[in-house]
Design a protein that fits this description.
The protein has 83 residues and is an all-beta fold. It has a domain of 45 residues. The strands form two sheets. Strands 1-2 form a two-stranded antiparallel ribbon. Strands 3-4 form a two-stranded antiparallel ribbon. Strand 3 and strand 4 form a beta hairpin.
Length: 83
């Protein structure tokens, strides 16, 4: 490579990793005594968690109809009245 300013732009991420969103700038300068190592770290995409099938009579989120719980600032779990 010739001396100068360069920009690394990832066009495709390795399988199972997120693509870089920002370009990485680097340069080669005349008289540079040592080669520099450019380390690029991609973020792994977490595996999808299987979704638990709902039980008969259960609403989405695992809550029973009319039974709602709230965690208050004091840390107590309050149940709201059924409607």
């Amino acid at each position: 490579m010739s001396f100068g300013e360069y920009t690394l732009v990832e066009t495709k991420a390795p399988p199972g990793y997120e693509q870089l969103t920002d370009p990485i700038n680097f340069s080669f300068q005349p008289g540079q005594a040592e080669a520099e190592t450019l380390i690029v770290e991609n973020t792994a995409i977490p595996p999808e968690q299987p979704v638990k099938p709902e039980e008969p009579g259960e609403q989405a989120g695992g809550e029973q109809p009319g039974n709602t719980e709230i965690l208050t600032e004091s840390g107590y779990l309050d149940k709201l009245p059924q409607s």
